[in-house]
Amino acid sequence: MTEPAFQPASLEGLKRDYPEKVCKLQHNLSTHPLLTLDAMVELATRLRPEHVEYNQGDLPVGIAPGDVPAPRLGIAETIRSIEENGSWMALKFIENVPEYRALLEATLAEVEPAIRDRTGPMLNLEGFIFVSAANAVTPYHFDPEHNILVQVRGNKVLTMFPADEECFASQQTHEAFAFGAHHRNLDWQDEFAARGTLYPLTAGEALYVPVKMPHWVKNGPELSISLSITWRSEWSASESDA
């Protein structure tokens, strides 16, 4: 990268709010050549097949894993026609491709000084890219990593719920997830909706999403590309062990 990924004021805000509060940042990755739609087609062919997930975009906020419809198109065709086919796609563990590992490591190297004193050194650096059609929905779920979601193209809204309130994700769900026995999708109840906090993201903005904070995502009216840069820590490992 020829310029820093994040602006200094953004990293100061992250240092203030990390690790348990949502924090918005500004970034400079929207024109990066590895994050274009054409680059996504090539990247998908270089990842292991099981590391490419794609689904219909017109899903409800809450859906059981077994009820998610099977994809209608192949991987490359889904990406090339994403603006018309109504799908969303996740390209996982992009650090297995050397150029993307370099991007992930350089970006997180900027972040580490802001967070190291709170949770220790960054562990298990992983990256994910989401390519989504207009109005696509990512159902209600949580993730086990510290995560900065970088909006590269288009816009979306994340609806977030308190991570420390059991009504949004039970202790049994957390325990099952730690043992690998629970899918990331969570049980949704319509009464949750009124208690969510909306965080709009446009290209050039990013959002720090705390560990296991329940949320769902709705894309805006155009194609969206988002980069998720994640890490674990001694702090998050202790939460999982507990």
What tags apply to this protein structure?
seven-stranded antiparallel β-sheet, alpha+beta, 242 residues, 29% strand, globular
β-sheet strand percentage: 25-35%
Helix content bin: 25-40%
Q: Please, what is the oligomeric state? A: single chain
Q: Based on CA inertia axes, which overall geometry fits? A: globular
| Rg for CA atoms | 17 Å
Mean pLDDT: 88
Give me the side-by-side strand order of the main sheet.
Answer: 1-9-6-11-4-3-2
Tell me the series of helices and strands, N- to C-terminal: HEHEHHEHEEEEHEEEEH
Q: Could you say which structural class the secondary elements and strand pairing correspond to?
A: alpha+beta
Textual characterization of the structure:
There is one protein chain. With 242 residues, the chain is an alpha+beta fold. It has helices at 8-17, 37-46, 75-80, 82-85, 98-119, 171-178, 234-241, and strands at 23-26, 52-56, 87-92, 123-132, 137-141, 146-153, 155-160, 197-202, 205-209, 215-219, 224-232. Strands 1-9-6-11-4-3-2 form a seven-stranded antiparallel sheet. A four-stranded antiparallel sheet has the order 5-10-7-8, with no helix packed on it. Helix 1 (8-17) crosses helix 5 (98-119).
Topology:
Blueprint: H1 8-17, E1 23-26, H2 37-46, E2 52-56, H3 75-80, H4 82-85, E3 87-92, H5 98-119, E4 123-132, E5 137-141, E6 146-153, E7 155-160, H6 171-178, E8 197-202, E9 205-209, E10 215-219, E11 224-232, H7 234-241
Antiparallel strand pairs: 1-9, 2-3, 3-4, 4-11, 5-10, 6-9, 6-11, 7-8, 7-10
